[in-house]
Amino acid sequence: MKFLLDTCVLLWSISGNFNKIKPFLPILENKKNFVGVSIISYWEIIIKKNLGKLTVPDNLIELIEKTGYAWINLELRHIQSLEKLPMIHADPFDRLLIAQAQSEKFQLLTTDSQIIQYKAQAPSIFDNHIL
After folding, report:
1. Where are the alpha helices (DSSP H) in the chain?
2. Closest alpha carbon to 107 in 30, 40, 27
3. pLDDT, averaged in runs of 10, over the chain (131 residues)
4. How far apart are alpha carbons 16 and 43 in whole angstroms?
């Protein structure tokens, strides 16, 4: 199966905060699963780091790459998918992750209650892998 991590799940995963992502551990540890990290998440992390809202290690890219997760680039079709996405949630990074997951047919691993509100509009990206 193909999965996309939301930004918080990514950060908890690389920091070893496994209590927050306990239900996702079987997915993340199964080498048969494709686990993607969006460049959108990296963009969000860097912006929050520069604003002083987030502290991350200087070797963040290296830590992510050591996990075996694959980078997913932002494509025009992902942005185009935003046109069809209802304005349930205003966070542009989260909206882009949802649109990207829909476009690429990924299941989005998230604990964010605002993102989960999209389940009615996009059930296939959430499946049974939400908290």
Report:
1. 7-15, 25-29, 39-50, 60-66, 76-81, 92-104, 113-116
2. 27
3. 95 93 93 96 97 95 94 96 88 94 93 84 63 38
4. 21
What would the pLDDT profile of 90-124 be if each residue is shown by its tens digit? Answer: 999 999 999 999 999 999 999 988 888 887 676 66
Phi (first) and psi of residue 130, to 5 degrees: -125, 155
For residue 54 the two structure tokens come to: 């987030």
**Which 8-state DSSP code applies to residue 22?**
G
Give CA torsion, residues 75, 80, 81, 84, to 10 deg. 170
In this prediction the pTM is: 0.91
Q: What are phi and psi of 38, to 5 degrees?
A: -80, 145
